Amino acid sequence: MYTQKLQPDSSFPDVQVTLSTGEAVSLSNKREGCDWKMVVVYRGKHCPICTKYLNALEDYKGRLLALGVDLIAVSADSQSQLKEHLEDLSITFPIASGLSEEDMKGLGLYISVPRSEKETDHNFAEPALFILNQDNTIQISELANAPFVRPDLEQLVSGLEFIRDPENDYPIRGTFSG
């Protein structure tokens, strides 16, 4: 089964998830002082590559905030799985659980079935990243169907520094539909 992919320059849907604190939030809500949002979808606590990526992302949080880019990570894990995962994470940015299969499909994510009960107990999203601008329009998107394909964080944040510089007047790319 294939999913409909969200297109650049389209509105990001309202997706409700639960933070590690238990608070329900919308993925597109931005903290005060931020007008853009980075939404990082990760596979779940079962994925050591995700853990490594999230821990590396912590090093870029300050640069993102300086650009006015808020940050959240989310998976389809349960709240208890997220709490267990926090033991392996060294992050201070918001992280959430409860991404439903319906929401995964609505976001156009690639969805995988666990290989065994040892991996996890639910279908899960493969990695994805969305950058939402001030209008909650998709400025950048990256969808992967395997855990090994993710944007290089230095290149991504450097690119956002370029895009956010008003002198560069950088448009949303990839909108030509032929």
Automatic annotation (TrEMBL):
Annotated keywords: Oxidoreductase, Peroxidase
PROSITE patterns, A to Z: THIOREDOXIN_2 (PS51352)
Lineage: superkingdom: Bacteria
Keyword Glycoprotein: no
Record flagged with keyword Transcription: no
Domain Thioredoxin per the UniProt entry, residue ranges: 6-165
Name used for this protein in its record: Thioredoxin peroxidase
Protein's organism: Alteromonas naphthalenivorans
